[in-house]
Specification:
Layout lengths: L34 H7 L9 H12 L2 H9 L39
Length: 112
């Protein structure tokens, strides 16, 4: 190698988003998802729900929504006449291994 006495500046690192990342394959602008809005719409698996949410879902399988809400608020102890008696109307989801029936036992009377 020979030197001409020229000083070459060091290479500059690129900053920012690459040029083509704003476009789709066919050149149309890409849609950007906002995290806050998207998270609230995504379905969450039953096992990841908070305990109170699980209790609401479980109670709604056995009693009306209003009765379930009153039971969770603590203003009502669920009696036998509130509970759904027809087994075909109770969802099969209750048989899933992630469902813990003992979570909602506190909301029912001993007869229910």
């Amino acid at each position: 190698e020979f030197s001409l006495g020229l000083k070459v500046p060091p290479p500059i690192k690129r900053r920012g988003r690459p040029k083509g990342s704003d476009l789709t394959i066919i050149g149309l602008p890409a849609k950007r998802n906002r995290r806050g809005n998207l998270q609230s719409r995504k379905p969450v698996s039953f096992s990841r729900l908070h305990t109170t949410e699980k209790e609401k879902v479980l109670l709604s399988w056995f009693v009306d929504k209003e009765v379930a809400k009153d039971a969770i608020d603590g203003s009502l102890l669920i009696e036998e006449e509130h509970v759904e008696c027809k087994p075909e109307r109770i969802p099969d989801s209750i048989l899933d291994e992630n469902v813990d029936i003992c979570l909602i036992r506190q909301y029912f009377s001993s007869d229910a």
